[in-house]
């Protein structure tokens, strides 16, 4: 499908820097997400079809994230503005992309409304299979502009349109967190901060903030090694990034290494290690014998690249954390089990997750995670520590999992944060992660 679309885009006559071209590309990206692909995969596939300038790539990515953070609302609007949902799916998503750009963000519109309508019509006319629908697109968008006050008021009465999550997701959040559910959903719809981890082998948070300020970048410390930038910047513009001075890592994710607190000479396993952020943090803390395990060759390459940038070394191995065929039978002093989960705590970074997950996923992943924990526990030395980490906020993947594991294996539970809910404040700004620390007695 993508080759057909890319051939069209190359031959459409649309200027790649135009909004019409970007709307057409973004509609294709959203189609791929709706059909089950992750947003990064969908973007990568579309971008691989032809040459895109950095500004065009950035705009398509930005609009894609914006659509997925507002998908419940634009679906509702499309339903109300048409007698029946337009077909094919590409046409629906082209309308979704245009509608989202007609919605103000913090009271500000990204484009003038007449520009959005004109460019959406041009995009539709340029797609051979959609060209007959250009009148429909024009009528729908203009009607929205006339009736938007009433339409947006009606949307607030529909949970999926109001909160921009599937109805089952909203219900589950309300049940699990009756006092916090609204704030959890709100934070999940916010663009995430750019948080850095300062490499303690090379600098300190205070010194790095001074370096950032000297480069015209406002930054503030929000953890022992965590520095949040006031405004996100491209990675290649982050002072010291290429030299391993800092890494991009959420403030909550930076808690894992200190919880395990590896010491010089220890043998440590980072299971499910890619992309290697937590591995790098542990190596920054101590001179350890670290094995980074992952089941995917490409993800192992990411670990290599990250550690090379930091000037650190670890052993890496391709292996399944539910099996032992990769293990040398020498027990570990510490194990980090960052187990597979629904990633329900990081929706502000990955807004596609809410639309890709299904209600049964949580239990299926919990079962897989328990098999991993049982397997890794047998590899831990007596007196050793195992850290269970997830980026989920569903209790069956976090607290319930920790209690079941502790009871089943007699694991002594040590002090750890437990469930961290996603939070967006000036000095407390992090994703929703869970930590449980166990000692093998």
From TrEMBL:
Active site: 391
Keyword Metal-binding: no
The EC number(s) this enzyme carries: 2.1.1.176
Single GO term (MF): RNA binding
GO cellular component annotations of the record: cytoplasm
Signal peptide: none
Localization of this protein: Cytoplasm
Top-tier EC class: transferase
Domain SAM-dependent MTase RsmB/NOP-type: 184-441
Gene3D superfamilies reported in the protein's UniProt record: Helix hairpin bin, NusB-like, Sun protein, domain 3, Vaccinia Virus protein VP39
GO biological process: regulation of DNA-templated transcription
Binding site for S-adenosyl-L-methionine: 272-278, 294, 320, 338
Chief location of this protein within or outside the cell: cytoplasm
InterPro entries: MeTrfase_RsmB-F_NOP2_cat, MeTrfase_RsmB-F_NOP2_dom, NusB-like_sf, NusB_RsmB_TIM44, RCMT, rRNA_ssu_MeTfrase_B, RsmB-like_ferredoxin, SAM-dependent_MTases_sf
Pfam short name (any one): Methyltr_RsmB-F
Catalytic activity: cytidine(967) in 16S rRNA + S-adenosyl-L-methionine = 5-methylcytidine(967) in 16S rRNA + S-adenosyl-L-homocysteine + H(+)
NCBIfam families from the UniProt entry: PRK10901.1, rsmB
UniProt family annotation: Belongs to the class I-like SAM-binding methyltransferase superfamily. RsmB/NOP family.
Name of the featured protein: 16S rRNA (cytosine(967)-C(5))-methyltransferase
Lineage, opening ranks: Bacteria, Pseudomonadati, Pseudomonadota, Betaproteobacteria, Burkholderiales
């Amino acid at each position: 499908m993508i080759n057909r679309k890319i051939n069209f885009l190359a031959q459409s006559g649309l200027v790649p820097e135009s909004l019409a071209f970007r709307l057409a590309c973004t509609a294709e990206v959203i189609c791929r997400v709706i059909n089950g692909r992750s947003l990064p995969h969908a973007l990568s596939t579309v971008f691989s079809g032809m040459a895109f300038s950095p500004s065009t790539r950035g705009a398509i990515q930005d609009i894609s994230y914006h659509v997925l953070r507002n998908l419940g609302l634009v679906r509702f609007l499309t339903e109300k503005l048409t007698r029946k949902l337009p077909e094919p799916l590409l046409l629906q998503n082209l309308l979704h992309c245009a509608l989202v750009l007609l919605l103000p963000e913090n009271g500000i519109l990204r484009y003038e409304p007449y520009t959005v309508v004109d460019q959406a019509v041009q995009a539709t006319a340029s797609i051979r299979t959609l060209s007959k629908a250009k009148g429909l697109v024009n009528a729908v968008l203009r009607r929205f502009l006339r009736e938007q006050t009433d339409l947006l008021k009606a949307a607030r009465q529909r949970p999926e349109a109001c909160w921009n999550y599937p109805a089952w997701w909203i219900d589950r959040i309300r049940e699990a967190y009756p006092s916090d559910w609204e704030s959890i959903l709100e934070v999940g719809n916010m663009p995430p901060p750019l948080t850095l981890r300062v490499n303690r082998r090379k600098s300190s948070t205070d010194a790095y903030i001074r370096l950032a300020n000297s480069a015209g970048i406002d930054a503030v410390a929000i953890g022992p090694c965590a520095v949040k930038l006031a405004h996100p910047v491209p990675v290649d513009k982050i002072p010291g990034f290429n030299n391993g001075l800092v890494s991009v890592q959420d403030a909550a994710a930076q808690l894992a290494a200190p919880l395990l607190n590896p010491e010089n000479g220890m043998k440590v396993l980072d299971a499910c290690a890619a992309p290697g952020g937590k591995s790098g943090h542990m190596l920054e803390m101590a001179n350890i014998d670290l094995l980074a395990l992952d089941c995917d060759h490409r993800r192992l390459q990411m670990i290599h690249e990250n550690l090379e940038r930091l000037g650190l070394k670890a052993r890496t191995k391709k292996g399944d954390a539910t099996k032992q065929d990769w293990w040398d039978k020498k027990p570990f002093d510490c194990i980090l089990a960052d187990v597979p989960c629904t990633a329900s705590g990081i929706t502000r970074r990955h807004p596609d997750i809410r639309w890709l997950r299904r209600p049964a996923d949580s239990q299926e992943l919990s079962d897989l995670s328990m098999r991993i924990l049982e397997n890794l526990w047998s590899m831990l030395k007596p007196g050793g520590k195992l850290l269970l980490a997830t980026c989920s906020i569903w209790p069956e993947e976090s607290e319930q999992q920790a209690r079941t594991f502790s009871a089943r294996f007699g694991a002594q539970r040590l002090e750890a944060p437990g469930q961290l809910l996603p939070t967006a404040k000036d000095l407390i700004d992090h994703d929703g992660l869970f930590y449980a620390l166990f000692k093998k007695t």
